[in-house]
Amino acid sequence: MTTILVTGGTGTLGRLVTERLRADGHEVRVLSRHAQPYAVDLRKGGPGLDAAVEGVDTIVHCATTPGGGDQEAAAHLIAAARKAGVRHLVYISIVGIDRVPFGYYKTKLAVETLIEESGLGWTVLRTTQFHDLLLRLFGILSKLPVMLLPAGVKDQPVEAAEVADRLAELALAAPAGRVEDMGGPEVRTFDSLARAYLKATGRKRAVVSVPLWGEGYRGFRSGGHLTPGRAVGKGTFEEYLGRRV
Question: Which of 112, 78, 92 is nearest to 164 (CA)?
Answer without folding.
Answer: 92
